[in-house]
Amino acid sequence: MSWTPICKKPAPDEPAPNLIDETVMRAGFSWENARAELAGLPNGGLNIAYEAVDRQVEAGLGKTVALRWLGKNGERREYTYADLAHLSNRFANLLERLGIGKGDRVCTLAGRIPELYVTALGTLKVGAVFCPLFSAFGPEPVRVRVAKSRARLLVTTSLLYQRKILPQREQLPDLEHVLLADGDDDSNVRSFHTLMEAESDRRAPPTTLPEDWALLHFTSGTTGAPKGAVHVHDAVAAHRLTGRWVLDLRPGDVFWCTADPGWVTGVSYGIIAPLTNGVTLVVDEAEFDARRWYAILARERVNVWYTAPTAIRMLMKVGADAAHGHDLSALRFMASVGEPLNPEGVIWGLETLGQPFHDTWWQTETGAIMIANTRDRDIRPGSMGQPLPGVEAAIVRRRSDGGVDLLESGEEGELALRTGWPSMFRGYLEDEARYRQCFAADWYLSGDLATRDADGYFWFLGRSGDVIKTSGHLIGPFEVENVLLEHPAVAEAGMIGKPDDYAGQIVKVFVALKPDHAPDDALRRELLGFARNRLGPAVAPRELEFMSDLPKTRSGKIMRRLLRAQELGLPPGDLSTLENNDGNES
Ligand code: 6R9
């Protein structure tokens, strides 16, 4: 590991970073103290939405812009904290009128539109569970997730409804209500806005408790269908604190998180952390476009920016010229998450945008940032940083008796976290067995391989299972392979991530055909199209290679490790035995 630390000196006129307070640390960190900073509710209650908006109104931020929405066609709308408090009250009242309350699941299937944010907050207020679905999922991943969540209500748009819900609504018996953000009432859908108009914007404070379910995020593992990770209201203690300590958010800041709320980052840091810290959140509806992004950073005077390595690589590809002429002087802090951020990206940020990118590490299951390069410490480019206060991280090796051995610095193993932080997931929906597999003694095993250096910085090495990250999106082989197996010509399918300069990895599948089918270009195109129609562009394979037979274990499991070796042109033995070892579910 070679690194040159980037030493950071705050500008003379800049207030001291509000990071990891020396005083707090001297007194000893405890999550109890972090919880005590929350407003809370009578009788020990706690509610994420209340902490995010109503508390801020009470604290005098009612007129501060909470959400600044930039529509893809140039539209611009602002919602103050008071607006969000009122709109989420209306939505909560509406849910109650429809008989939806504690523990019920409410899904969104939408791009980054204001209605999604109102739905999230209103859902949390009635104690229902907010479950966002990525709008670029195709009909199959959408059906699987809505069905598994047993959502009773879905907020979506006309187009997404027509394409992804209507054709399979009969297979979703729990789904009683569909509300369209942009449509009128019809026999089986209702207009979000018409219903909202009929509701009052006042309501009594929520009655949720810290351990009540709040969020449901689907994520993928090496085997089996997607898993629904459950988070509770208590998680807000970690969202708020990491927003302050890692992202350095302060009231009055303009903050832009580029992640889509269809994934965990877009909820934890695209909604909850910024609002609970009283900042103005910028939401851009449009997809990535380098010139548009620089214009947003400059025009909106973004102070803090949280983005992803794929986007950083795309900006690097477009070149530094695109950044020139934009006044980025408001930018105070930039951070990244979701994939390895290589040292070049960190340094490019410093040279081109005036700030280094700070890598942060966490997962759907951890709910909030666990390891980070924080503002008050030197960055080691290429490292994920150090565990935050309240987080105990270790590199471990699983023992066959179910325990773990803690490894020394410099050794390679699995990244584990000692259980007990507030935003730790509380279960996989209806899958206790898989939940238990994530733990050994009191350690949560992340499924990531890493090492720790002598100074306590953590370095990412890879995944232990077969999930991949493509453009920052976590994809499991099960869904992709299953869809291909539905095609009458396909006998076997195996998915891998193929290294890609920009997306990190792209989805590639190897396919063995049934007898009587010839592997030609026409069939390749047909299969790719077939998969794309069902899976959607975010998940569908980009490449497909025919093989006469896929390598399998004696028990018949496809050995994706060998497919990866073939792709990389390596003899199988050259692949690290640690990385992607078969049978390690995560
Ligand atoms: C927040 C999020 C989690 C997986 C995680 C790891 C990868 C996240 C990373 C990183 C290298 C980083 N990952 N941050 N890899 N460096 N800084 O991304 O959640 O979608 O559940 O993915 O992403 O493999 O285990 P999720």
From TrEMBL:
Keywords of this entry: Acetylation, ATP-binding, Ligase, Nucleotide-binding
Keyword Acetylation: yes
Statement: the UniProt record of this protein carries the keyword Ligase: yes
InterPro entries to which the protein is assigned, alphabetical: AMP-bd_C (IPR025110), AMP-bd_C_sf (IPR045851), AMP-binding_CS (IPR020845), AMP-dep_synth/lig_dom (IPR000873), ANL_N_sf (IPR042099)
Enzyme Commission number(s) from the entry: 6.2.1.1
Annotated AMP-binding enzyme C-terminal domain residues: 479-557
Domain AMP-dependent synthetase/ligase: 63-429
Source taxon at top rank: Bacteria
Signal sequence annotation: none
GO MF: acetate-CoA ligase activity
NCBIfam families on file: PRK04319.1
Protein's name in the database: acetate--CoA ligase
Species per Swiss-Prot/TrEMBL record: Candidatus Competibacter phosphatis
Gene: acsA
